Amino acid sequence: MSGNGKFKKQLSLIDLTFIGLGAIFGSGWLFAASHVSAIAGPAGIFSWVLGGFAVLLLGIVYCELGAALPRAGGVIRYPVYSHGPLLGYLMGFITLIAFTSLVAIEVVASRQYAAAWFPELTKAGSSDPTAIGWLVQFGLLCLFFWLNYRSVKTFAKANNLISVFKFIVPLLVIGVLFAFFKPQNLTSQGFAPFGMSGIEMAVSAGGIIFAYLGLTPIISVASEVKNPQRTIPFALILSVLLSTAIYVLLQLAFVGSVPTEMLANGWAAVSKELALPYRDIALALGVGWLAYLVVADAMISPSGCGNIYMNATPRVIYGWAQTGTFFKIFTRIDEESGIPRPALWLTFGLSVFWTLPFPSWEALINVVSAALILSYAVAPVSVAALRRNASDMPRPFRVKCMGVMGPLSFIIAALIVYWSGWSTVSWLLGLQIVMFVIYLLCGRFVPTQHLSLGQQVRSSLWLIGFYAVTIVLSKLGSFGGIGAISHPFDTLVVAACALGIYYWGAATGVPAHLVNLDDDEESEAVAEPRAGLRPVGGRAQHAS
């Protein structure tokens, strides 16, 4: 295998927008409606708006990074540029877990919906796969691997075809369900029966953030995008705006078309009565042809999303390896195809692994949502730090009002993590702290010529502080904690702490003379040279 190849610029604005929309429209829209209703009632509509607003803010912030630094695996490399390899290592670990498990989640979702036609795929009385069901999941993963192994253009063509069908069905669902819309459903059990805390919790636990988080694949393939300075911001913003409009309409249509008799026990019981929301409600309303289309789409939509993450994850692994804190073999790119094939093999292996002990879709969305939003949360801090330490870097897309946008987007991301609840926060953030300790013990073996371990710790300590504070507040708060701090005061305390940590992180980035953004073979992707700016770790440390 050749190890000196380069990424090939083959992706257009249409390709990139479909990657974003395709990643957003996976299993989330198929399962989330009933879960959101059970947690927030009709007010779940506002949960979707809140989630869309949060992801839009983070997406706009990512636009500045993606346009200025179009790099493969950017979600890992931006923290390295701004705060050093230690921060990139922490983000690499949590992103690798989230992305590879996402591929598995989507094939599991496809199999769960397919069981409506082929019940032998799922064990009776549970959501676990039978031996045949697991083989179907494995076959889908093999198909994703093959599509991505050939070339990025083969992947893009397949994704564009799948995406067209994926959006026809949700639009049909909206149109048909509004024909059965009952306005009284919005108030029969109270518009917000679980209060503001229900609206907030639905953002994480209801699967909303999980449904929205399709922006990272856009950033991950940045080195393969034509005219990235223009294409990336357009694709990011367009993906979020379109998906928010569709999601809000889907939720409103679902709430308004639920048969009145199903609400006798309140909204909390809806997720059990309508476990496959749009298929079950179509059958209840006597629209059999729509139920048929929903099941067909339910096997295709998650598969398309899984295929996208099979494509994006190798770029993240590549980006992590480029920082010098992961195995160097994963920096190899096949010369003919432009694919980081060793990283693709690792992605495939981990995706298969996650299907082995895999629980249901519902059991994992909370954890994966929190893990993904953590990787997003670092972006505004990276932007602020780079503005301080690399102020001369050309920025084709510059976020206006960053003094407001930056802290606001970080606060919202922190709240979404907090709303995930104590059971998720405790082990997920606790595991990150353990990985930090492991790095401290092994830090001297990391090949970072320009930064000492002490400098890396000083530039990354704000994130560990954020983890520790969030764990403590989660234990004391009302989202799965002991309730010592009641709602909404717990949310206000988390927001105040997040604001302080944002400014701490922005002020402790890598010193300006150690920053280098003009790294390795991807520098040709950048419109203007950045003389004098150097990377802080990995292969690029050998640049003269």
Q: What can you see in these coordinates?
A:
This protein has a single domain, classed as Amino acid/polyamine transporter I (Up-down Bundle), CATH 1.20.1740.10. With 544 residues, it is mostly helical. The radius of gyration is 22 Å and the shape is globular. It has helices at 13-24, 28-40, 44-68, 74-83, 85-114, 131-150, 152-178, 195-205, 208-212, 216-220, 228-257, 270-273, 277-284, 288-322, 341-355, 361-389, 402-419, 422-442, 453-476, 489-507. The model is unreliable at 520-544 (pLDDT under 50). The chain contains 20 helices and no strands. The longest helix is centred in the middle third of the chain and has 35 residues, at 288-322.
Strand-helix topology:
Layout: H1 13-24, H2 28-40, H3 44-68, H4 74-83, H5 85-114, H6 131-150, H7 152-178, H8 195-205, H9 208-212, H10 216-220, H11 228-257, H12 270-273, H13 277-284, H14 288-322, H15 341-355, H16 361-389, H17 402-419, H18 422-442, H19 453-476, H20 489-507
Helix pairs in contact: 1-7, 1-11, 1-14, 2-8, 2-11, 3-8, 3-11, 3-16, 3-17, 4-5, 4-14, 4-16, 5-6, 5-14, 5-15, 5-16, 5-18, 6-7, 6-14, 6-15, 7-11, 7-14, 13-14, 14-15, 16-17, 16-20, 17-19, 17-20, 18-19, 19-20
